[in-house]
């Protein structure tokens, strides 16, 4: 055992509380307060992961969110959460995790054979390999697609599960004056200052404890500030809360891990809580992350970031090794060496690339003991599954030259420090481009504005104790032969970066994509700056000229469960008509028409949908049928200028429409294309009710509101959506008048009192109704409207009155059949690409007044004779047509040039054939032509059709006027 | 993005619908008297500024009023909210 728990120390652990957990089913013990990383380290476990491509054994490298290697899958009741950093998993009794990307086990991974083929998996491997020819029956890319799943198994990270996640998640919206991100000393001080002025402050710390990376000596100061903040009502303190996204207008996203660290969540507590925080001011105190140095063998388990070694010792009382060595280009690691010596470790050597160091560092080196190797570099490591020794050679970092032979130093833990990178990720997300600082050899946040500020190490204020200098030597890589890793998660080496450069990748964005550097789950927290430095070196440019990539959310992975929270399952809104339950009780199959649920057909036992709708359509044509039209958009328009307003938005005239009369109307868009059609009922001098198609109700309402608010604010008109206030039933068929006569009181419904397009007011079974005689089916028909709450009552009264006339309810399919037979258009034909002329509605275009669209509707392209126009089609072979089929020329053997498409189809009982409506090029001149309806991809049909007039039944309209 | 509705107070973007360039909408040509080119410009021509942009938003999930909003297209900062069509 190399690493071990010290006899004392450890600010986070409770030595009296032993906790049992399993890794791949094997039992381990740690202490309450441990992370999985610290507990495994205390157990002497060195290999904690296998690398992505080469399956190299990897050990713990970091202390927190920057850990690239030690990733595990947490398993809870069959639910798997992959790629969780061991540094962030707090252990509890019964915690079960699995190691990743290894087979059969972490210690003996047969896939490690990938290492032998190292060259084959170099940068751009996927791009180069999966293109180009392969000889044989499976040519080119198809062959490689077959290989892909094999390779994906060999290269990868954790495997997600398929079991549904039973955890509960919450989301919360919060508002504050100041959001402090980072609960280290700098953040806490900032929070305290803001809180004292009475402002509402939220402080988020991603670790379980306050204080961040501050060393043990600051503990009482931190406790004091936290206690003061806790006592204030204007402060919200959140630990285990990662702010991972910063969006426009100071809106930030955070995940609070409420009970991930507990064996069972407390009553009512969610697993995680998704915070959406809107802050007047954001105070960034996100600290800095230590950088590694890139050198051959730098990925051997036992090579760790220096400050991580210090924090494992101080926080958990775990020494990362017994015989330490330090490799640095800056002063900060000297304090770590001294501290670990104090905690009981033996420091074998401090290797520093700098030829000389300051007095403060020298004093700490003396305290740490061991050989001080200035002007030296680590050029190699050895040890099969963990570090046993390092090779050190004399190195001049200015000339990058080595001299003399390499010296072996036995050590089980090499603590590396390559300088510090302030955590600029969030500021970069918000659009603040980082600025290179030559002294610190790091990117710093730019100068903030009033909406944010930056404090402590995140601002580059590294503030090391002991008068240590924060400035490192500009050394990122030791250029000595051997595999030197830059991005540990994606196995990107320094040579890969240079290879990408030799192959012509010059931009940092291209380099990133080609090598996949910085694109793994850690988003390059340890690799971005070294990778950039190596790229800059290859380009012969200074680092700031190469630039950095913009960071994107999330800073660390956020669970989709927390973002969705309670929003899962069937979230589609369903709108139900007042008669919805009646339809269900009478055998209706419901159909989703937009948000609405509408009866498709009322199938009798044994009937197919087609048999049902054909029967229903016949009933309407021969007797009477009743259909629910409550879904039609209904808008109440009132005011002294209402008639003038309608004149401006409809293509036809409304000023002269008498009270208690209705008129069919068409609206165009400003560009002259058709927008919607419907009927307009004049209920009083200054009051109209308009109906819209079900599909366009919202669009028409918004259009009218825009016209009134923006174009004609002086018009004295109010528009109100009353779609949900009125229930509507259309009764159609030659017997419909008889049915009404049998149940309507208070008004005559005869032809004189209620002519075509007339409106009467009366009552059905005691409920006031409005009846308008208009027809969508082409039959004698009426729409009966009543208050929505009485919808079913009136519907049932109409059905009862119709019983002697064999009335039957009919659904959308029969409605569609009837309107297709008549050539009436709906949203399927008013599809945004058709004009009034295309739909044979040019008779509705008034020439006596301007209206919306009138200025643009006569443009050359919109009046072209060859435009697609509305026609009817009849299947000549008896085959069933398919809506959406292409209308083509050609012959029985195959399609010729495309001429248009079918917008709707049905079986017509009147014509006794499958018929449809279509939009066909120069359709008006094709009546009688024999063409084909072809649908090669979906139904594979190719059906001979005849083009006919869209008025297939009763072209003169004698039935509805009768 | 938060839009300060003069009727409902500051509300989330998700309650609003974008309706177009306010200056363009305000310049709707006279349908009876204008030539085709001014209509072409009204229907099709739009500026695409990086910076302040006057635009119409409808508070569709609230009071349903249309608002004239000056929004910076780079920062999304809103510097002015007025009623469209209001006489200057
Ligand atoms: Zn509002």
From TrEMBL, chain A:
Gene Ontology CC annotation, any one: cytosol
Keyword annotations: Oxidoreductase
InterPro entries (alphabetical): 2Fe-2S-bd_N, BFD-like_2Fe2S-bd_dom_sf, FAD/NAD-bd_sf, FAD/NAD-binding_dom, GcvT/YgfZ/DmdA, GcvT/YgfZ_C, GcvT_C, GCVT_N
Signal peptide: none
BP GO annotations: tetrahydrofolate metabolic process
Boundaries of every SoxA A3 domain copy: 482-566
Aminomethyltransferase C-terminal domain mapped to chain residues: 870-954
Any matching Pfam family: GCV_T
FAD/NAD(P)-binding domain span: 177-432
Annotated SUPFAM superfamilies: Aminomethyltransferase beta-barrel domain (SSF101790), FAD/NAD(P)-binding domain (SSF51905), Folate-binding domain (SSF103025)
GO molecular function: sarcosine oxidase activity
Domain GCVT N-terminal stretches: 579-849
PANTHER family according to UniProt: AMINOMETHYLTRANSFERASE, AMINOMETHYLTRANSFERASE, MITOCHONDRIAL
Membership in a protein family: Belongs to the GcvT family.
Protein name, UniProt field: FAD-binding protein
TrEMBL record, chain B:
Pfam families associated with the record: SoxD (PF04267)
Natural source organism: Oceaniradius stylonematis
Source domain of life: Bacteria
Protein name per Swiss-Prot or TrEMBL: Sarcosine oxidase subunit delta
Molecular function per GO: sarcosine oxidase activity
Example GO BP: tetrahydrofolate metabolic process
Membrane spanning residue stretches: none
InterPro entries: SoxD, SoxD_sf
């Amino acid at each position: 055992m190399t690493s071990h728990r010290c006899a004392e120390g450890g600010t986070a652990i409770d030595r009296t509380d032993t906790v049992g957990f399993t890794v791949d089913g094997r039992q381990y013990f740690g202490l309450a307060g441990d992370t999985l990383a610290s507990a495994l380290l205390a157990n002497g476990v060195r290999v904690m992961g296998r690398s992505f491509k080469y399956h190299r054994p990897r050990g713990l490298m970091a202390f927190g969110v920057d850990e690239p290697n030690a990733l595990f899958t947490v398993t809870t009741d069959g639910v798997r959460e992959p790629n969780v950093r061991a540094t962030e998993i707090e252990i509890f009794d019964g915690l079960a995790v699995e190691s990743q990307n290894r087979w059969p086990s972490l210690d003996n991974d047969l896939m490690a054979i990938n290492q032998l083929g190292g060259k084959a998996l170099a940068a751009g491997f996927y791009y180069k390999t999966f293109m180009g020819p392969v000889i044989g029956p499976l040519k080119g890319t198809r062959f490689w697609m077959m290989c892909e799943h094999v390779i994906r198994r060999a290269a990868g990270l954790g495997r997600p599960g398929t079991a549904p996640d039973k955890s509960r998640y919450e989301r919360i919206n919060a508002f504050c004056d100041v959001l402090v991100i980072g609960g280290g000393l700098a953040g806490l001080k900032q929070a305290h200052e803001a809180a004292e002025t009475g402002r509402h402050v939220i402080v988020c710390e991603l670790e379980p404890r306050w204080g961040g990376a501050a060393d043990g000596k600051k503990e009482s100061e931190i406790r004091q500030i936290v206690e003061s903040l806790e006592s204030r009502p204007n402060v919200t303190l959140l630990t285990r809360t990662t702010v991972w996204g910063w969006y426009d207008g100071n809106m930030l996203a955070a995940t609070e891990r409420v009970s991930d660290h507990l064996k069972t969540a407390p009553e009512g507590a969610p697993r995680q809580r998704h915070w959406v925080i809107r802050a007047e001011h954001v105070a960034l105190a996100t600290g800095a992350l230590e950088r590694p140095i890139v050198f051959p063998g730098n990925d051997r388990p036992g090579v760790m970031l220096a400050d991580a070694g210090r924090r494992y010792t101080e926080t958990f009382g775990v020494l990362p090794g017994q015989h330490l060595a330090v490799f640095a280009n800056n002063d900060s690691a000297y304090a770590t060496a001294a501290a670990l010596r104090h905690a009981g470790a033996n420091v074998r050597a401090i290797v520093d690339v700098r030829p000389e160091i300051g007095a403060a560092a020298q004093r700490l080196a003396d305290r740490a003991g061991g050989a001080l190797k200035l002007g030296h570099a680590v050029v190699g490591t050895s040890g099969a599954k963990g570090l046993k020794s390092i090779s050190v050679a004399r190195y001049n970092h200015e000339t990058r030259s080595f001299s003399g032979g390499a010296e072996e130093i036995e050590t089980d833990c090499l603590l590396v420090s390559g300088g510090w990178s302030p955590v600029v990720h969030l500021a970069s997300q918000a659009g603040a481009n980082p600025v290179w600082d030559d002294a610190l050899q790091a990117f710093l946040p730019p100068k903030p504005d009033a909406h944010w500020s930056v404090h402590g190490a995140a601002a580059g204020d590294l503030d090391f104790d002991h008068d240590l200098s924060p400035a490192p030597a500009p050394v990122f890589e030791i250029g000595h032969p051997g595999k030197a890793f830059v991005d540990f998660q994606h196995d990107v080496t320094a040579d890969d970066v240079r290879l990408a450069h030799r192959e012509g990748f010059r931009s940092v964005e291209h380099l990133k994509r080609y090598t996949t550097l910085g694109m793994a789950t850690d988003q390059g927290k340890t690799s971005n700056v070294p990778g950039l430095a190596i790229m800059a070196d290859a380009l012969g440019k200074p680092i700031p000229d190469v630039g950095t990539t913009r960071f994107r959310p999330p800073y660390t992975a956020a669970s989709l469960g927390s973002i969705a929270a309670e929003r899962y399952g069937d979230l589609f809104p369903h709108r139900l008509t007042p008669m919805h339950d009646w339809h269900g009780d009478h055998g209706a199959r419901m159909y989703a028409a937009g948000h609405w649920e509408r009866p498709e057909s009322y199938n009798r036992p044994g009937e197919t949908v087609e048999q049902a709708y054909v029967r229903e359509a016949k009933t309407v044509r021969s007797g009477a049928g009743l259909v629910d039209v409550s879904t039609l958009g209904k808008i109440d328009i009132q005011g002294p200028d209402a008639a003038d307003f309608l004149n401006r938005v409809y293509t036809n005239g409304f000023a002269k429409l008498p009270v208690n009369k209705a008129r069919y109307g068409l609206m165009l868009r400003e560009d002259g294309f058709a927008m919607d059609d419907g009927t307009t009922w004049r209920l009083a001098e200054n009051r109209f009710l308009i109906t819209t198609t079900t599909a366009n109700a919202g669009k028409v309402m918004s259009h009218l509101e825009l016209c009134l608010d923006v174009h004609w604010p002086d018009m004295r008109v109010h528009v109100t959506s009353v779609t949900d206030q009125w229930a509507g039933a259309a009764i159609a068929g030659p017997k419909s008048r008889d049915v009404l006569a049998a149940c309507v009181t208070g008004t005559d419904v005869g032809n004189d009192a209620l002519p075509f397009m007339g409106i009467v007011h009366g009552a059905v079974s005691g409920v006031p109704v409005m009846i308008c005689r208009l027809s969508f089916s082409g039959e004698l028909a009426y729409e009966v409207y009543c208050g929505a709450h009485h919808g079913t009552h009136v519907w049932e009264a109409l059905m009862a009155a119709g019983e002697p006339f064999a009335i039957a309810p009919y659904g959308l399919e029969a409605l569609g059949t009837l309107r297709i037979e008549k050539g009436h258009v709906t949203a399927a034909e008013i599809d945004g690409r058709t004009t009034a002329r295309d739909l044979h509605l040019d008779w509705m275009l008034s020439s006596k007044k301007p209206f919306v669209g009138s200025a643009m509707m006569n443009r050359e392209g919109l009046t072209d004779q060859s435009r697609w126009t509305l026609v009817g089609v009849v299947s000549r072979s008896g085959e069933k047509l398919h809506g959406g089929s292409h209308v083509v020329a050609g012959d029985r053997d195959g399609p010729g040039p495309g001429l248009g498409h079918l917008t709707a189809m049905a079986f017509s009982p009147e014509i006794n054939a499958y018929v449809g409506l279509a939009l066909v090029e120069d359709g008006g001149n094709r009546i009688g032509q024999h063409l084909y309806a072809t649908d090669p991809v979906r139904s594979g049909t190719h059906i001979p059709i005849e083009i006919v007039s869209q008025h297939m039944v009763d072209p003169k309209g004698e039935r509805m006027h009768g | 993005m938060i839009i300060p509705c003069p009727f409902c107070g500051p509300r989330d973007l998700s309650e609003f619908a974008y309706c177009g360039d306010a200056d363009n909408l305000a310049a709707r040509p006279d349908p009876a008297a204008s030539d085709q080119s001014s209509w072409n410009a009204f229907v099709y021509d739009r500026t695409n500024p990086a910076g302040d942009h006057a635009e119409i938003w409808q508070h569709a999930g609230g009071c349903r009023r249309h608002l004239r909003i000056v929004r910076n297209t780079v920062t999304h900062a809103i510097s002015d909210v007025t009623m469209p069509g209001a006489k200057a």
